[in-house]
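This part of the workshop introduces the protein records we will be handling. To make this concrete, we reproduce a full record directly below.
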Amino acid sequence: MARVIGVFSGKGGVGKTTAVVNIGATLAYDFDKSVTVVDTNTSSSCLSLHLGMHYSPLTINHLLKKEAKYEDVVETHGSGMNVIPASIRLNDSFVDMSNLPDVVKEASKTSEIVLLDTAPSIGSETLWSLKSCDEAVIITNPDLPSVVEALKMIKLADEYDVKVLGVVINKVKRKNSLTVEEIKRICNTEVISLIPLDFNVEDSIKQNIPIVHNRPFSRSSLALKELAAKIAGESYKPTPMERFRSVLGV
């Protein structure tokens, strides 16, 4: 039985899609997991832009409207993960999400882990994503607006009986608006990962390559690999050489 994990934020711009892309790529490439990443953000999709799949003729939008078959929509990324992209066309943006559980169920048949890249808001897309998953990871930044929205998502997940695996704090700097302890206290949830702010992420997105592959020894890449391992229950610890190269930035 596949684990279906929704990755939520409640607020755009915190790095949710970046986290999903790199967790999925790490699980497939480094841990040899059968992974399917599903873009459930049908109104403002950007997953395909991260992976260079924005020219996909068939997307989850077509699946939800029952205008395509599952096998015609799923694509395989170079990392080995399967991807169900969403359309970036304005005319495809508004779709009925009620068939999402069926799409996720189909993905679960051939996957050990299904990751949902959800919409950064509390709307129908997010609610149907919650109805379609069993576990959740909450992405936030170390500032009050992001953490307040993260708290909303945690409470909403609880209402839908979705197990929250923990909070991931992304774009962490040396000095932040909120400390880790303050975020834990506000969210009343375990913080499972700290992802450093990394300006290489922007370049990786531009190149359509997950940063764990584009800059595998960057500090953010090592943190993302550790997070992926934690989610999957795998053992991973960067080697001294990997740590050394991350310090050097090479």
Remarks:
- The beta strands are 3-8, 35-39, 75-76, 82-84, 113-117, 135-140, 163-172, 191-196.
